[in-house]
């Protein structure tokens, strides 16, 4: 029986409507509008698209947002100064530096310059540490979106075997840490596979929930999936397609056609995890606004 499609676009719209209502209530109570600053260094086309989409989401929800577009040759110190200015700006509750940065800039140094209370990407070591030990913090947006997709689809990871293929700091490691916590909608047994794993299919075939996040087009085939498993495809890969007007198409890390015949449920690409990432960024920005009001003793 073909898999159920997990519609991330629909679920993300539901979340954004909830956030919009909460933001309106916050404004009515305090006069505060959640504010998000984007910093884009260089002219990476994909980064420009992502920042534009995030800015559009802010507009839809009535958030305040600014985008600082800096030339590729911007120095590390100049970028640090820009971040420090935003750290002290009370209208800005969240700061997002779009990655990747040009090679002459140390990404970790830049991420550590962001005030942890404004780190809505959840990449600052303080927030990563809080995630690992189970404290409340800003969860990285894509992993948080995966957990929310499972939750709103009625798929509880508790007691299940989750296999994650990929160990990046952006998706693989944080989703492993989120789902291993002794908490609701987590509490899973987690296996992480990566480039050093021998016979990945041995592990993927054991997964009750399989999360593919390695950036390798259509790597996971249907014969690598346990019948009835939940498949979450994080990959977004552009491959040549002479039949398309654009000359390319977007595919995930999972070969959708073969996986669709085996899995119990699956996220499509596009329209699965992607929209959830932006929704969770908006959720983190609202949370950051609330946290900063509490820190200033404006809210209880």
UniProtKB/TrEMBL annotation:
<dbReference type="Pfam" id="PF00763">
    <property type="entry name" value="THF_DHG_CYH"/>
</dbReference>
<dbReference type="GO" id="GO:0000105">
    <property type="term" value="P:L-histidine biosynthetic process"/>
</dbReference>
<dbReference type="InterPro" id="IPR000672">
    <property type="entry name" value="THF_DH/CycHdrlase"/>
</dbReference>
<protein>
    <recommendedName>
        <fullName>Bifunctional protein FolD</fullName>
        <ecNumber>1.5.1.5</ecNumber>
        <ecNumber>3.5.4.9</ecNumber>
    </recommendedName>
</protein>
<keyword id="KW-0521">NADP</keyword>
<keyword id="KW-0368">Histidine biosynthesis</keyword>
<comment type="function">
    <text>Catalyzes the oxidation of 5,10-methylenetetrahydrofolate to 5,10-methenyltetrahydrofolate and then the hydrolysis of 5,10-methenyltetrahydrofolate to 10-formyltetrahydrofolate.</text>
</comment>
<dbReference type="GO" id="GO:0004477">
    <property type="term" value="F:methenyltetrahydrofolate cyclohydrolase activity"/>
</dbReference>
<dbReference type="GO" id="GO:0035999">
    <property type="term" value="P:tetrahydrofolate interconversion"/>
</dbReference>
<keyword id="KW-0554">One-carbon metabolism</keyword>
<dbReference type="GO" id="GO:0006164">
    <property type="term" value="P:purine nucleotide biosynthetic process"/>
</dbReference>
<feature type="binding site">
    <location>
        <begin position="166"/>
        <end position="168"/>
    </location>
    <ligand>
        <name>NADP(+)</name>
    </ligand>
</feature>
<dbReference type="InterPro" id="IPR020631">
    <property type="entry name" value="THF_DH/CycHdrlase_NAD-bd_dom"/>
</dbReference>
<comment type="similarity">
    <text>Belongs to the tetrahydrofolate dehydrogenase/cyclohydrolase family.</text>
</comment>
<dbReference type="InterPro" id="IPR020867">
    <property type="entry name" value="THF_DH/CycHdrlase_CS"/>
</dbReference>
<keyword id="KW-0486">Methionine biosynthesis</keyword>
<comment type="subunit">
    <text>Homodimer.</text>
</comment>
<comment type="pathway">
    <text>One-carbon metabolism; tetrahydrofolate interconversion.</text>
</comment>
<dbReference type="InterPro" id="IPR046346">
    <property type="entry name" value="Aminoacid_DH-like_N_sf"/>
</dbReference>
<feature type="domain" description="Tetrahydrofolate dehydrogenase/cyclohydrolase catalytic">
    <location>
        <begin position="6"/>
        <end position="121"/>
    </location>
</feature>
<dbReference type="InterPro" id="IPR036291">
    <property type="entry name" value="NAD(P)-bd_dom_sf"/>
</dbReference>
<keyword id="KW-0658">Purine biosynthesis</keyword>
<dbReference type="GO" id="GO:0009086">
    <property type="term" value="P:methionine biosynthetic process"/>
</dbReference>
<dbReference type="GO" id="GO:0004488">
    <property type="term" value="F:methylenetetrahydrofolate dehydrogenase (NADP+) activity"/>
</dbReference>
<dbReference type="GO" id="GO:0005829">
    <property type="term" value="C:cytosol"/>
</dbReference>
<keyword id="KW-0511">Multifunctional enzyme</keyword>
<feature type="domain" description="Tetrahydrofolate dehydrogenase/cyclohydrolase NAD(P)-binding">
    <location>
        <begin position="140"/>
        <end position="292"/>
    </location>
</feature>
<keyword id="KW-0378">Hydrolase</keyword>
<keyword id="KW-0028">Amino-acid biosynthesis</keyword>
<feature type="binding site">
    <location>
        <position position="236"/>
    </location>
    <ligand>
        <name>NADP(+)</name>
    </ligand>
</feature>
<dbReference type="InterPro" id="IPR020630">
    <property type="entry name" value="THF_DH/CycHdrlase_cat_dom"/>
</dbReference>
<keyword id="KW-0560">Oxidoreductase</keyword>
<dbReference type="Pfam" id="PF02882">
    <property type="entry name" value="THF_DHG_CYH_C"/>
</dbReference>
């Amino acid at each position: 029986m073909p898999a159920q499609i997990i519609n991330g676009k629909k679920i993300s719209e539901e979340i954004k409507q909830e956030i919009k209502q909460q933001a309106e209530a916050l404004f009515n109570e305090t006069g505060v509008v959640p504010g998000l600053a984007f910093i884009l260094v260089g002219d990476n086309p994909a980064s420009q698209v992502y920042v534009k989409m995030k800015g559009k989401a802010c507009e839809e929800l009535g958030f305040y947002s600014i985008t600082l577009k800096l030339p590729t040759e911007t120095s590390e110190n100049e970028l640090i100064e820009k971040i420090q200015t935003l750290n002290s700006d009370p209208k800005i509750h969240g700061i997002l530096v779009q990655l990747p940065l040009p090679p002459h800039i140390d990404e970790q140094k830049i991420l550590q310059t962001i005030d942890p209370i404004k780190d809505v990407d959840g990449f600052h070591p303080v927030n990563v540490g809080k995630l690992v030990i189970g404290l409340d913090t800003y969860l990285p947006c894509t992993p948080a979106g995966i957990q929310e997709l499972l939750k709103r689809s009625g798929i509880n990871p508790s007691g299940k075997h989750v296999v994650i293929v990929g160990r990046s700091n952006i998706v693989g490691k944080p989703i492993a840490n989120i789902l291993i916590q002794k908490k609701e909608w987590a509490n899973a047994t987690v296996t992480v596979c990566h480039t050093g794993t021998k016979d990945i299919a041995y592990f993927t075939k054991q997964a009750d929930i399989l999360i593919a996040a390695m950036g390798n087009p259509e790597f996971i085939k249907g014969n690598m999936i346990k019948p009835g498993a939940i498949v979450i495809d994080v990959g977004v890969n552009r491959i040549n397609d002479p039949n398309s007007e654009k000359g390319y198409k977007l595919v995930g890390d999972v070969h959708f056609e073969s996986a669709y015949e085996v899995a119990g449920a699956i996220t499509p690409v596009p329209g699965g995890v992607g929209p959830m990432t932006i929704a969770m960024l908006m959720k983190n920005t609202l949370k950051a606004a609330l946290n900063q009001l509490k820190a200033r003793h404006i809210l209880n």
